[in-house]
Write a structure and sequence with these properties.
Layout: H1 8-21, H2 33-41, E1 46-50, E2 53-56, H3 57-73, E3 81-84, H4 90-101, E4 105-108, H5 115-124, E5 127-131, H6 133-140, E6 157-162, E7 172-176, H7 177-181, H8 193-198, E8 204-207, H9 214-225, E9 229-232, H10 240-245, E10 249-253, H11 254-266, E11 276-280, H12 286-296, E12 300-306, E13 310-315, H13 317-322, E14 338-342, E15 345-349, E16 356-357, H14 361-367, E17 368-369, E18 372-381, E19 387-392, E20 396-399, E21 402-405, H15 406-413, E22 419-429, E23 433-442, H16 450-461, E24 469-472
Parallel strand pairs: 1-9, 3-4, 3-5, 4-6, 8-9, 10-11, 11-12, 23-24
Antiparallel strand pairs: 1-2, 6-7, 7-16, 12-13, 14-15, 15-18, 17-18, 18-19, 20-21, 22-23
Helix pairs in contact: 2-3, 3-4, 3-6, 11-12, 15-16
């Protein structure tokens, strides 16, 4: 299928620049050939556990071959858009690998999209086939393809990872097949030191949410490469899933880590199998990181990464315990990652980074330049190579590892006739890491209805963007520059 869509040329040009920078880091095998080879290597090896079902590598490869055959019969091949609207299961993993195998342009549907956002994403991504649970069952009924070899073309778009839509319109982060093929996860000889320390702990890696998640899929591939098993988390909550599935590792958001630490203090569960928790979303304050290591033991891996870049830095628990000063950092970048400070902001370059934003040349130009990615995070790299984060250059709230753009929420609140001005800011939260809070100035003679305002945000931007509190103020404090000073807003009153 031809890709002659307006706005895509900018992404393609940026992809060419990125590919030139990472040419010496590429592997001969096009993604996902390393995963296909791994499944073929030991057919009897267990690779996915879902309840009482244990799927071995041979069965998984057969499922991939069936979905490959079904997708080809539906006319899906290199450059054709495929949306994956699936949860976590062995079949969903097979469908994910199969979609990449045929060389499709794969996009996962993020949870919580409003109906109009979902329609918009499918249209903008030029999706030809949506694979949901019903379509997947039909694909799996196909006879297995006789040839299962990665067909992606290096310069083609392999994946569009969509944001949650809390900026008002979901943004699609683009990776080419060349970029995904340059990832280190399937290659033990290229694992950075912190990842090499993590890999032996991935015997039973809990998988939840969606395999379309950049983080979830990356560590799933790492787990298989390390000889571990993917375990569907049912139920998905902590600590129950760890105990029930005898899990050794999982990804965890900052908010859920706080909850787990609190639960272990109040009513300890048997977490003796747990060996690694990968903190995702926002960085941990040193005091909270110290507390987590004290309560949970040496299992917390702290790091830093973005959808646009993949992993930027990571630090293992043993290193933090040996050198307490490291607790104030997010670790050191591996040798294949470059980090520079420009005007107080961090810019990075990684082998598997994205090339731009789908159909959005303006946003692409603001973040991707000359093979580098502007993180929009403030920070520096110290003399020992450790990365320190010091704030954000953009007005966002990170709720359960999802970005919520304050400006988008403010614009929705100001659509209410009772609101003259609206201001949104982050506050720390033990449940979600950070929470959205709003302050509103009433229009003359009006009384804003907090519940109605929250409903308006939920309907437009999704539930993740809903303010936890809505505080009525007479005016917003001003900084010396005359601009609104959100840091001087009164503390919100959070009720049960």
């Amino acid at each position: 299928m031809a890709q002659d869509h307006a706005g895509d040329d900018d992404v393609t040009a940026e992809a060419a620049t990125t590919e030139a920078v990472t040419a010496d880091r590429r592997h001969a095998a096009v993604w996902p050939q390393p995963v296909l080879d791994l499944l073929a290597r030991d057919p009897r090896r267990p690779v996915f556990e879902d309840g009482d079902r244990v799927v071995d590598a041979g069965e998984m490869r057969d499922a991939v071959a069936r979905v490959v055959a079904g997708l080809r019969a539906a006319g899906v091949g290199p450059g054709v858009g495929v949306a994956l609207d699936l949860g976590v299961s062995p079949e969903a993993f097979a469908a994910t690998v199969a979609a990449f195998t045929v060389g499709a342009r794969v996009c996962g549907m993020p949870p919580g999209l409003a109906p109009e956002q979902r329609t918009d994403v499918l249209a903008r991504a030029h999706v030809a086939v949506v694979v949901d649970e019903a379509r997947l069952a039909w694909l799996l009924a196909s006879p297995p393809a006789s040839s299962v070899v990665a067909a992606g073309q290096p310069a083609d778009v392999a994946r569009i990872t969509w944001t949650s839509g809390t900026s008002g319109r979901p943004k699609g982060c683009v990776q080419t097949y060349a970029s995904m093929s340059a990832a280190w996860a399937p290659y033990p000889e290229q694992w950075p030191p912190a990842v090499a320390a993590l890999a032996p702990r991935l015997d039973r890696y809990l998988v939840f949410g969606s395999l379309s998640s950049h983080v979830m899929l990356e560590y799933a591939v790492l787990t298989l490469s390390a000889g571990g098993v993917l375990v569907a988390a049912r139920p998905p909550g902590f600590p129950d899933a760890i105990v029930r599935h005898r899990a050794t590792a999982s990804v965890i958001t900052v908010g859920r880590l706080h909850q787990l630490v609190r639960a272990q203090r109040e009513d300890p569960a048997d977490l003796s199998t747990l060996r690694a928790l990968l903190v995702s979303g926002s960085p941990l304050a040193p005091a909270r990181l110290t507390e987590a290591l004290d309560v949970l033991g040496p299992v917390v891996f702290h790091g830093y990464g973005q959808t646009e870049t993949g992993m930027i830095a990571m630090v293992a628990p043993e290193e933090m315990l040996a050198a307490p000063a490291v607790l104030a950092t997010v670790g050191r970048p591996p040798a294949c990652v470059d980090v520079r400070e420009r005007d107080g902001e961090l810019w990075v370059r990684t082998p598997a980074q994205a090339s731009g934003y789908w159909g959005d040349p303006r946003e692409t130009a603001g973040v991707f330049a000359d093979g580098w990615v502007r993180t929009r995070d403030l920070g520096h790299v110290d003399a020992d190579g450790y990365v320190h984060l010091e704030g954000r250059a953009r007005d966002v709230v990170i709720v359960d590892a999802q970005l919520v753009h304050a400006g988008a929420v403010e614009r929705v609140l100001e659509l209410d006739p009772a609101v003259a001005e609206a201001y949104v800011a982050a506050r720390p939260d033990d449940l979600t890491g950070e929470a959205v809070h709003a302050w509103v100035v009433a229009a003359h003679g009006q009384v804003p209805d907090a519940a109605a305002l929250r409903d308006r945000v939920a309907a437009t931007l999704g539930t993740v963007a809903v303010p936890q509190t809505v505080t009525l103020v007479d005016h917003v404090p001003l900084a010396p520059s005359g601009k609104p000073d959100k840091s001087a807003l009164p503390e919100p009153v959070v009720t049960a």
